[in-house]
Specification:
Number of helices: 11
Largest sheet: 7 strands, mixed
Number of domains: 2
Bound molecules: pyridoxal-5'-phosphate
Number of strands: 12
Radius of gyration: 20 Å
Distance between the termini: 51 Å
Strand order of the largest sheet: 2-8-7-6-5-3-4
Oligomer: single chain
Structural class: alpha/beta
CATH topology of the largest domain: Aspartate Aminotransferase, domain 2
CATH superfamily of the largest domain: Type I PLP-dependent aspartate aminotransferase-like (Major domain)
Shape: globular
CATH architecture of the largest domain: 3-Layer(aba) Sandwich
Order of helices and strands: EEHEHEEHEHEEHHHHEEHEHEH
Length: 367
Amino acid sequence: MLKEKRWEVGSEFDWSNDTVTSSLSKTFFPETHKLFSTGRSILLSLPPLFKRHQSRLRLHLPSFFCMDVAADLSKVFELCWYRDMPTELLPDFNSLNPLPGDLVLSVNLFGIKEGKVWQDWASQHKDIILIEDHTHDPISPWAQQSTAHYAMASVRKTLPIPDGAIIWSPQKLQLPQPALGEPSGAYKKLIAMLLKRAYLSGANISKDAYRMFQIEGEQALNAETSSAASSFTSNILNYLNISELRKKRELNIKQFFYLLLTETHSNCKPLFTTWSSGAVPFNSILVCANNEVREGLRKFLISQNIFATVHWQQPFKGFSANDSMAIDLSNRILTIPTDQRYSLDDIERIVSNITEFLKTYDHIAAT
Ligand SMILES: Cc1ncc(COP(=O)(O)O)c(C=O)c1O
């Protein structure tokens, strides 16, 4: 028997049977949908649905977005940018000027945005194809009540599966089809998930063993342009206890902010502390005073086995929306993993590590 558990927070999901229900869970997604391996596979598969004379379709993206994904999309689309920031209530519609037939991706950034403004916008721009990206909260009220041409979500970002992304059409339009079979990268990632579970449970295997499968699997998946979800994902998706996992995520995020805000920290603040009823944020997001604090905190947390992520650095691989507001935020933002994997004790330990760093930092800065 294994004696000792390892404590580690963040990075990719491990596999746990605790996330599964015995009977078919409530289906949150419309009956008619398509499963792909990745979100970018979905978006890259859209152009053949729109017969156009121009060589490349234009796709309008929010200026605060994952530049790695944008770089892949630029291979197929002509990219245009409009300002949408997670710090602002509304997108800057003045900066969004699509031509008839263009595609616009509206993103529920960190799961805290509202869909009504997009519905109003779409009703005044009927010649534009609106695609909603619900990756950060795939079953939000906005997603479930969507009236867009298409709605999609990379569900592998919030659910413990090796691959998987979904598209449906609230307007019942033709859906893209995955052109290729199952991605081998998904199976590498599944191996990584199983090995990570064994590692966290105390098995004497090296971290490098599962990290290698994770990295290779992710690289292979991200190179896919139109692959179906793996059989593992398409079989298990309906048996994941999605609503319980989502409830746990919200509880953890609430607890994180509650504990963090018992003290004030001049060098670091939550990006948001409230969200509309029914929505569940992607994670606990912090904004630091500057890049030095962000990097100091990120590195300190790594030393404590807490792997915080930057959503999303720009420029990245030379890619940027060239929006000074988005670039500035990208230098200061930090995602603290507080999802369904963690207990309230874990959240307390995460917060006390952050508080320890910030107190020391504030103290040094004051002397
Ligand atoms: C908001 C958002 N949309 C789409 C994607 C693309 O998903 P995938 O990585 O599965 O291609 C990502 C990935 O980071 C994302 O964060």
